[in-house]
Every structure is written in structure tokens, then in C-alpha cells.
Amino acid sequence: MSNRIVITGGPASGKTEFCERLKNIPELAPFGFISEQARHFLKEQPDLRHDSRQLHQSIYHSQVWYEESMKGEGFITDRGTADALAYQPDLLTLLKTTLEKEYRRYDAVIQLESAAALGEKYFTGDNIRRESVTEALRIETALKKIWGGHPGYHFIKAHKNIEIKFGHFLKIVGLIIRKNIEWTR
Amino acid sequence: MKPKTFILIFLVTACLTGAVTAQTVYFNTFKSEYGLVDLDLLNNPGEVCSVQDFVYKKDVATFTFEEGIIYLLRYIQGRPTTAIFIGKGRAFIEIPSHLEKNNLRWCSRDSVVNEKFEVCLIRLADDFDLKLREKYTFEQKQLSWKHFNIAKKAQGEFFFKPHRDHEYDNYFQLLRSNYERREDGYFWVDFNRYVFNFDPSRPEEVIVAYEHEGGDIIISEAAVFQRREKDTYDDSRMSDITYSTTMLEREGSIYMGGLDGKRIDSTRINVRVLVNADSLRFVSLFLHYNLKCDSIYYENQPLSYWRRNDFSFIGAILPAYRYKGDTLHFTFRYSGRDYRTFLPFVENPKATPHNLTFYIPGGYNYLMPGMSEYKAGAGKERVITVEPTQPFQNFYFQPYASGYDTIPKVTDIGLTLNFLNSKAINKNRFKCYLPDNTFQTTILTAFDFFSSNLGIPPGTFEVFVYPEDTFRNNLSMPGLVEVPQVFCAVEGTGGLYTEAGYQVARQWFGSLMQPSSYREKWLTDAPPAYLTIMLLQSVFNNPAISYTELLHLKDRLLINASKNEDLPLAAVRRLNEQIRLNKGAWIIHMLRFLMYDLETHSDKTFWRFLHEFSVMGNNQPFTNTDFIRLAEKHYGQPLEWFFKKWLYDLGIPEYEVEYTFIQKSDGFYVEGTAGTKNMADDYNMPVIIRVEDTGGQSSFHRRTIPGTGGPFSIGPLAVEPATFYFNEFFSVLSKDKVKKR
User: Fold this and answer.
1) Nearest to B738 by CA among B672, B679, B688, B678
2) A151 touches chain B (CB under 8 A)
3) Phi, psi of B605 (to 5 degrees)
4) How do the domains of chain A map onto residue ranges?
5) At B515, phi and psi to the nearest 5?
6) Interface of B with A in 521-580 (CB under 8 A)
7) Beta carbons of B389 and A175 less than 8 Å apart
8) Which of A157, A162, A163, A170 to mutate to test the interface with B (most CBs of B within 10 A)?
9) Which among A148, A165, A178 has the least Cβ separation from residue B616?
10) Fold: same for B245-401 and B654-740
11) How many beta-carbon pairs below 8 A join chains A and B?
């Protein structure tokens, strides 16, 4: 059974919101949840924003630590180790790893398309996220390039109606874990 | 009524009438001038002059009118739109694209046009007449009977006259260019068996056409490419086509009816179209010719448009010029029986979001992606709203009447296949009826095989299997598999799996695919065609079944090549569908064996490649170049040489191999030479070779045979070889002659 799932995507793609919703679904109770490391680091140490290499190295190590602490149990993570490569492409060399090795950490990857794809008016930033629409789309393309080769990769298009996008997302999660799951508020 | 109110109403009415009248006058003028395009050549005003060594260059073509006379005729807006040359002339056209040069070679058996002519007929809306006037003095004169007869005998306008098989209405194209007459305007010329057409309003402006067979009703478009200034002649750039408009969104209501629920009674479809051209007033729109267009509104006002009977092409004339970045809103109202291509479209194939509401008659059911639950409508009518998450190039739906049972089956990945069971398709009515169990097992097997290698199909969470009593409909969309339940196949030969496999594979490579242009069309057909062969290999222990199917495709290709029907795959639109499928499937097969791991006999890399292509192709527009880059990424080496041959060139390679077994001090060797034919020098194809030793053990080897041919060697081998198999797994599409020295 596929039980190590990455939820990834560019800025304003709904990763964090969707991961939060998944936590309330009974069928997913056996899964551990790993929240986004970048968000955590930037909140705690805002100065790290100015040292991209240091930031993404820290994110990578922290991500690995959290995944290993799951001790073989299934987990759903908001971003995976390879995400850092979209922001810091030389990380593979620095960390002496390969994309293939990073792929093997996960059974499935779901990339959510950023709302930036729908145009300026659907794209909103927050205190942590400061990218422009163009920057968001650039990051998204880089993520696609990095994760696209994963054998369990899925891509979910953005939609003006977030509920339709979430329904689509939930069905993909259901198919990955081979269970029918439903969302009730 | 107060005088002030009266004056106000009068003024408003006058303004409105003026606006409408102005448009009507413009359009009425256009309509009457449309009639002039086909005006009789005889007994109408004309001018004539004698010419000598007059050279006219139009894009990539050079016409030299060495000696003779030129008539100018059919004046519209004060300028001639027809010219007839009688005398001695020469046309020279060098096709700047390697791909299109090959297309011309297929059509006319020559890759350049270098023709002497004695008569040529020209339709023009450029400055050809002005260039002539700069050099020669014209005399007012009607076309003489003698010259009329010469022109008629040459049938110079035969291929210009609009025909229902034409994509565009030539008269409209000439006129729209005449309204914006300039140096790079419309220029169409017929000489001998050739037609050269420069149409500034088409995405690919230049067409060199040839009368492939004497008596053709439609001339064959031999070479098609963009104008010189765009410089998109490298094979890798042929798909970079600039379109004057892009469809942004299609939304609206569709009222279905008819005895079978397949008739479109009426529609109100709103489309938003983005202007990419610097400016435009004439817009090319398309609606399937089976659909009768009742009206088109532009920005809520009636639109002036021109559409010939039986044409999909609609020439829209906007009330004023619009500019790059503007969005045009059109509302179409139409009806008819074509529900397969039921929405208006533009040349640019970019996928668009859809938001549709279907009003359907009682007793009928519909299948379509992203559909809502049925809601009650007026009377027995029901309503469905459709807002799929994915954009579509072609949005399909399938209506079906009541009387179907639904039998759900769960696949290995947990996705439900709902088999629709029709009472009308049964063994009493059809001799070749497939029992439900056989039918369902075949489709489930295909689904499980593909999903185990390609993952969850994109945009699908529940699939309906719709049984047909006819053969291959090619209607595919996320959530619908159409497979004939009436199929005359001999059990154990794989025929059933071929059909089911093809249709099921379209869940991964179907209507969600987003080829950037028609030149990528083969990539939506080839993977399903080849996946059926992999399915046969997986289902049957006997490899002869899948290889027989593969070799059947090869035989067809060899027959096509011998009959001079072969064309480069990237010509697509001009390519026979069978060649497209067969050659496409073989390309996928060859890629599989380039990526095949000979040590572990694993297809893992190939499946990863196909999976990534499925994800890419279903989520973003892709070009042939994107596909090539992806293949290179998984293969780990450049593949330009491979695709140059198979996408952009003609002919089936041939190998003539001689080999011998030699014993040396360190072991046994197979040594040989390979002669090559029909391939470029840089076609360095790795061929898989199997050597069976005297103990019955086989070893597999890959040897790159250069396009120029040359020696090869395998060894040292520990055990004496007994048999040598060149091109094992049929890893290369080629004609092989193998002989022991």
C-alpha cells in the first residue's frame, strides 16, 4: 500500500489548507502528518530568508529528521525533501544525494497547481509568502520539473472553486491509499 | 409626447439605425464584392501589357515572367484581384524546412520546385499589380477569346474555387486581404500541376500544393510552413506556430433532443477569444459543418459573418479593429446533429476551461467529465451542469437512452469501472456478441495492466464502460471507455484485447492531452496503439501473438512505403491515419527498447518515461521537442538523430548483415559487417542482438550500427555460439537481410 505521500505545489496552491483538512478525515487517522518546514523556519528565524542555501539545507535536514521519526509508519507531508531543489538547485551536490534517492523516500506525490495560474485576482500572498504571480509560476514549473519524474506523481489543476479542486484532490488521495474517503466540514 | 422627449427618442433611434446601417452597408458591400471574386473573365473590364524578364518574389518563391503578356482582371476596391500570364515563365521555390521539403518530395517526387510554365493564373490581393505598373504600361482591354480559351484549358482556377473539403473559404481569404491590401497580401498562383499560396491570414501562411494524381478534386498540400520572417524552419521549431487568436473559455447552455437524445436542438454558447495579432477586424472562427448556425452575436450585437454551406469556416467581420491583448466575446446560437465536435473553435488548439449546462430530454442519460448530479428541469426535462477541473481541446460527451443496467467492478487500484449493460446488444441480435463476462474481464485486465504501470488515469475517479455495436468510435474522455461488445475475433489471437486495450489506454492518452499544434497529433494516438501490444504481451504467454501484431503494423508500413504513401510523421494532417498510428506505435516500441535494461530485462525506465509523458501531456501544452527532451532525459543520451529520422524524414531503414563465428585465444567472437540503406549518416541506432550458444543459453548485446554501416564484434564469449539473431525483439523498424559468411 502507498503510505508515504508528499503534497507539494507552488505558492497559493492550497497545500497547507488541504493538509489541515486531511487531518480531520477518520480514514487517514493512521497517518502521521508533517507540516511545511519552510514555513516553520521562516516564522522562527526570519533572517534565514536572506541565506537561501542555509535555509534550504536546514529545511532538508529537518524534513529528513521528521520522516525518519515516523519509523516506517505512513505519513502525509506538506512538501518533501526534493522541494528545496526548486528553490536551491545546487542542493543535490551539497547534500551528496540524487533525485532518484529522494524519490525513493515517497510512494506518491501530489502537486497542486498554484492559483497564480488562474490570474492575478485569484492569487493572494500572506506574511510568509511574498512571491509575485510570475515568481509563483516559476517556482511551480521548477517543482513540476523536479517531481514530474516520480513514478507516483499526480498533478491537480487549479480551479476557481477551491471545493472542486479539493474534491479532485481527495479522490486522488483515496485512490492512492485504496480507500473511499469523504470530507465533511 | 413632449417635444423634448420626441427629439431625444428620434436622436437615439437615428444613432442606432445609423450604427446598424453602417455595419449593414459595410457588410452588404462585402457580400456584393464576394460575388465579384468569381466574376466572368470574358466581357468584363481588364488591362493588358507585354512583359519581359519580370521577376516577382513572394516569400520563398521566385517567379520569372520571361516573355509574354499579363492581363489584370476582376477589380475590387479599384484594384485587380486576378492576373493571367500567357507566354514563357519559370517558377523556383526552395522549401526552407527539412521536414516540409520531405513532404514535397513525397507529393511531387522532387524536393524543390523548378518549373517552366506557359500559362499561370494568379489571384492576388498584394502589390503584384503595382510592381508591374512600375515597369510596364497597361492598355485597357478585355480578355480576348483566344486567351480566355488558353486560360480555361489550363483550368487555372479549378483548385481556387471553394470546395467543402477546404479548411478555409478562398474567396473570403482573398477579400479580407484585399480590404487590407499591402505588399505581403494574398497571392495564389496556379502553374502546371502546382499551386503556390501565400495567405497572410492563416497561421502557416505558405502552402506549396501539387496535383498528386491527375483529376484530383482537391489539390494536395505538399509543403506547409510559416512566412520567411518568422524563421521557424528548424525541425524543432515547426510547431512554434503563431496564431492570431486564442480561445480562452467556452460556456453556455445546450438543449438536447431528438429520438436518440443526440440532436442539439438549440444552444447559447459564449466564447471569449484573445487577440494575439497586432490588430484584426476579420476573425476566423469554426463550427462543425453539420451544425447550422442561426446567429452569432459579438459584444451583444448581431455580428456580420460569412459562412458557405457545408463549411466549418466562419469569416467574422468585426464592426471595428481590435488590438493585441483585447478579448472578444461571441455568442453562438446553433443546432444540428453533430454532437462530437459540438462547440465553436479557432485555429489555435490550446485547451480551454468549459462551463456548460445541458438541458436533456426525459429518459436519456449522459456521460461527460466533470458533470453534476441530474437536477429537475421543466416538465420531464433534466439539467446537468458541467465544470471540469481540467481544460479540454475537444470536450466530448456520450448520450444514451434508458434501458442500461450498471454493473460496478472495482479495479486493482480501487477505481470503479461501471459497465453499462445494454439490453439491445445481445446474442440474439448480433452473431459476434461478446458475453458479459468475457467483455468485462478483458477490459478489467487492460485497466489493471495499464494502471499498475502508469498509475491513476488523469482526471478520472470513476469510469463508465459504454458498449457499442459498431467498431472503434475513438470517442475518449476521462471517465468513459467505449468498447464494442460486438466483435468478431478468434479466441486466443488477442483481437479482443487489441480493441479493448486501445480504448482503455486512452484514459491516459486521450482527450485531455494538449498537443501544441497538429504536428504533435501523432502523440495522442501512438501510445494507446502501442500499449495494446504491451497488453497482449502481458496477457498471453505466447510472444508470437504480440509480435504478430507488431509485424502486421510493419508490413502495412512497408506496403505504404512501396506505394509512395509514406510521409514524415510531423506532417500529420496530411498523413494517412493508418500510417500515423502504425509508425507512431513503432516509434514508441523503438524507444522502449532503447530504454530496455538488457541485464535485468526490465521496462522500468520506459514505464517511467510514459508515466511522465502522460502527466506532462495531460496538464500542459507540449511540442514534439518537449517529447524528445523527455525521452532523452530517460534514455540518458541525445536522441535528435532518432527523431530526425522518424518524425521528420521518410523511408524505412534497411540493414544487410553478414556475420561469422570466430574462435580466438580469449574466447569466441561474433564478427560481422552491416550495410545500411535509407538512413542518414548520423543515424546511429543501437540494435539488440541475441547470441545463442551451443548449450542453448542466450546472451543479449547492444551494438550501435552507424548510418554509414560498418563492422561490429561481440565477444569474447565463453561458450561457442550456435545461432545469431540480429534485431532481437524487433528493436528497430527496418528491413533486415542477415546471412552467415
Assistant:
1) B672
2) yes
3) -65, -40
4) 4-177
5) -60, 140
6) none
7) no
8) A157
9) A148
10) yes
11) 49
CATH architecture of B654-740: Sandwich (2.60)
Asked whether the predicted pLDDT for residue B98 surpasses 50, the reply is yes
Choose the CATH number for B406-641 among 1.10.10.410, 3.40.350.10, 3.30.70.920, 1.10.390.10: 1.10.390.10
Coil, strand or helix at B457: coil
C-alpha–C-alpha distance, residues B383 and B362, integer Å: 10
Chain B residues within 8 A of A155 when measuring between CB atoms: 458, 615, 618-619
B-chain CB neighbours of A151 within 8 Å are: 455, 607-608, 611
Q: Does A34 touch chain B (CB under 8 A)?
A: no
Q: How far apart are CA B461 and CA B447, in angstroms?
A: 13
Which of B391, B414, B612 is opposite residue A175, by nearest beta carbon?
B414
DSSP state string for B360-382: E-TTEEEE-TTB---EE-STT-E
Task: Determine the distance from the C-alpha atom of residue B327 to the mean position of all C-alpha atoms in its chain, rounded to a whole number.
Answer: 27
Which one of A165, A172, A179 has the shortest CB-CB distance to B456?
A172
Distance in Å, alpha carbon of B639 to nearest chain A alpha carbon:
19
Contact B390 A148 (CB under 8 A): no
pLDDT at residue B574 tops 90: no
Spatial contact of A158 and A147, defined as CB atoms under 8 Å apart: no
Q: Does B371 touch chain A (CB under 8 A)?
A: no
Interface check for A40 against chain B (CB to CB < 8 A): the answer is no
Q: How far apart (Å, rounded) are the C-alpha atoms in residues B227 and B739?
A: 50
Q: Do A155 and B414 touch (CB under 8 A)?
A: no
What pairing do the DSSP bridges indicate for beta strands B735-740 and B654-664? Answer: parallel
Task: Quote the percentage of chain B above a pLDDT of 90.
Answer: 72
Q: For position B401, what pLDDT does the model report?
A: 78
Structure ipTM over 0.85, yes or no: no
Give the list of residues 6+ apart from residue B319 with CB closer than 8 angstroms, or none.
B23, B298, B301, B304
Question: CB-based contact (8 Å) between B391 and chain A?
Answer: yes
Q: What is the fold of A4-177? A: Rossmann fold (3.40.50)
pLDDT number for residue B499: 86
A119 CB near a chain B CB, below 8 Å? Answer: no
For the stretch B160-210, pLDDT in tens is 999 988 999 999 999 999 999 999 999 999 999 999 999 999 999 999 999
Query: Is A183 in CB contact (< 8 Å) with chain B?
Result: no
Determine, for residues B390 and A157 on separate chains, whether the beta-carbon distance falls below 8 Å: yes
Identify the residue among B461, B610, B622, B633 best suited for mutation to test binding to A, counting A beta carbons within 10 A and taking the highest.
B461
CA distances from A70 to A8, B27, B327 (A): 19, 73, 52
Partners of B272 on chain A (C-beta within 8 Å) are: none
Torsional sign, CA B165, B171, B175, B181: positive
Q: Are B242 and B269 in contact (CB under 8 A)?
A: no
What own/partner pairs with CB < 8 Å and gap ≥ 24 does B631-640 have?
B631/B591, B633/A149, B634/B595, B634/B605, B634/B606, B634/B608, B634/B609, B635/B591, B635/B594, B635/B595, B635/B605, B635/B609, B639/B594
By CA distance, what is A148's nearest residue in B? Answer: B612
Mean pLDDT of the region B590-600: 97
Query: pLDDT digit string (tens) for B273-330?
Result: 999 999 999 999 999 999 999 999 999 999 999 999 889 999 999 999 999 999 999 9
Most confident listed range (B385-394, B466-475, B606-615):
B606-615
CATH number of B245-401: 2.60.40.1730
d(CA B508, nearest CA chain A) in Å: 12
Strand B382-386 and strand B354-360: the pairing is: antiparallel
pLDDT, residue B19, reads: 35
Determine the pLDDT at residue A134: 86
| Domain boundary assignment for chain B | 46-233, 245-401, 406-641, 654-740
